[in-house]
Amino acid sequence: MSKIKVKQLSVSYGNHEVLKNISLEIPERQIIAVIGPSGCGKTTLLKSMNRLLELNEDVAVSGDIYIDGTSIYHAETDVTCLRKKVGFLPQHPYPLPMSIYENVAFGPRIHGLDIAKTVSAFSKEGGGRKEKKREMDLLVEHYLSLAGLWEEVKDRLHAPAAKLSIGQQQRLALARVLSVEPEIILADEPTSALDPISAKLVETQFKILKQNYTIIFVTHILRQARRLADYIIFLYMGDLVEHELASQFFTEPRDKKTKDYITGEIS
Amino acid sequence: MKRRKLEENIFKGMMFIALFLVFAVLAGIILVVTVKGLSSLNLSMIIDTPKGGYYLGKEGGIANAIVGSLYLMAGATFLAFVISLPVALALQKEYLGKRFADFTRLILDILWGTPSIVYGAFGFVVMVFLGLRASLLGGIIVLTLLMIPIMTRAMDETIRLVPFELKEMAYALGTTRMETTFAVVLKQALPGIFTAIILAFGRGIGDAASILFTAGYTDEIPSSLLDPVASLPLAVFFQVGTPVPEVQARAFAAALILLFIVMVINVIARLLGWRFSKNIVR
Fold this sequence. Notes:
The complex is a heterodimer. By secondary structure, chain A is an alpha/beta fold. Chain A has a single domain (about 1-265), classed as 3-Layer(aba) Sandwich (Rossmann fold). Helix content of chain A is about 40%, strand content about 25%. In chain A, about 45% of the residues are buried. Chain B is an all-alpha fold. Chain B has helices spanning about 1-40, 45, 65-90, 100-115, 115-130, 135-160, 165-170, 175-205, 210, 230-240, 245-275, and strands at about 50, 60. Chain B has a two-stranded antiparallel ribbon. In chain B, a hairpin with a 7-residue loop joins strand 1 (about 50) and strand 2 (about 60). In chain B, helix 3 (about 65-90) crosses helix 6. The two termini of chain B are about 35 Å apart. Classes of the chains: A alpha/beta, B mainly alpha. Chains A and B meet through helix 2, helix 3 and helix 7 of A and helix 7 and helix 8 of B.
């Protein structure tokens, strides 16, 4: 069943049309790679799915996107709820200007999530009455573990997040995204600023997370798409060329442009 | 190659000379004020109000002006902060359109450049119209007006430096504009906001012209907001203009105290800025 339906989506910045009439469906609980040459609209497509695009000036969007059958561009859509449901992992991980602990606790706090409920869902200690602080501690530990960062930071949770290495910052960003319990994770070239080891850690977490989340990531590294993705969306100069199961996409590309891109004729 | 090396050296030399000039002037001011004022500076100067007649007398101290300046600045800095911060935040593109924001910035820059005597005259006219006399309250209000443009613009510039990606990160979590502003933007901009307060404080505490007519001058320490109040800049202004050497020396002592207060406030602000900057994302 498809999680996201994009219908005739066009996006332009001023007079420049970046996405041209894109329609596609995205399956649930898989890893989806958006690939294509630089400037083909990959990031724009990604950011249109949680309306982060709107933070830019001069953006015009037409068409619509449906998540679980609900329009996200409808006038009554609450954009804060949308963004809680559709998390975003950036290319360059900016930690929020607070401690490691606070970076993870921030999201649940602003959304007023029922921490006790979440905690009892994963805590071995059961749902007994504990004080709020303790619950938040468990929550922070849970999401840092889920992002594969807990072991490295458990002794300095209250140190500034800005002091972490960039690879750790990216996993902290992942923990932060997970902490508001999204269903979809958008990731914009999440490993491009990282060293190979950190990049591998992030990829490993993605493979684990896809059991519970729909992960859509942008990459310009074909090998990474091959390694991770179950499903591929190929954009070229703002047009949707192909969207296909990864196995099919790489072995039997239908379009000539796809074939040229895979073989490296165009890049 | 020789020519380029020469250019490099000439430029270095120019920078060095300019830097030296800045230090020399600063050292000169401190030296003159210290040499001329130190002889009259004693405990009585700090803790006593003027004795021996009018405020140009040689006896007693200038506690009236010290306390007066602190009262004026406490009130004006607080009020200016309460008004400047919302204005600076409103100028950001999340809230105001670029055109209106730029127009507001222009207005603030013009107000910033307006001589303080104009603020003083304006305040005086308004007070006469309202039937008020020179008072602590009048001084605080005019100083607040004087400080708002500089505080707002300094805050605005530092808030504008917060990286877009950082705000984007917060919005991506589903925050509202206010949550992003308070939890992320202001935290990131905090050291700059301290600097903005200090810049405005520096302008306010040293200004004589704006409070000349609005705060007045008195030998007493004011007991209510409606009493006239003395201030350090005016203590310097009145005393340095007399032909009596002893009174002139008291002017320099007052200047020395003023410099000392500015220095202490600066150091405290730096320390606070440093204390709150450990979480800043660079």
